[in-house]
Specification:
The structure is a single chain. The protein is built from 5 helices and 3 strands, in the order E-H-H-E-E-H-H-H. With 78 residues, it is an alpha+beta fold. It has one domain: Arc Repressor Mutant, subunit A (Orthogonal Bundle), CATH 1.10.10.10. Strands 1-3-2 form a 3-stranded antiparallel β-sheet. Strand 2 and strand 3 form a beta hairpin.
Length: 78
């Protein structure tokens, strides 16, 4: 995943609202899964990355992504 800014994350999740993405990122940060780095610039620069703890979820999310790709036709048909 690497480090991403908010706009890049929003582009990666089509259809997500700014409010919902902000809420989810805050929850993931509170749970120690995502690290939020704020740079003192104008305008403010904020980057998000997985923590070491968050990286432990990768095997699970990879399996879920593979499952979704295999079943995409059925999912889109609904």
């Amino acid at each position: 995943m690497g480090t991403h800014r908010f706009a890049a994350l929003r582009r990666k999740v089509p259809g997500v609202s700014e409010r919902m993405l902000t809420q989810q990122l805050r929850e993931l940060e509170e749970d120690g899964i995502v690290h939020r780095e704020v740079y003192p610039e104008v305008p403010p620069k904020v980057e998000y990355s997985l923590t070491d703890y968050g990286k432990t979820l990768r095997p699970i999310t990879e399996v879920m992504c593979e499952w979704g790709q295999r079943h995409m036709k059925r999912i889109k048909a609904k």
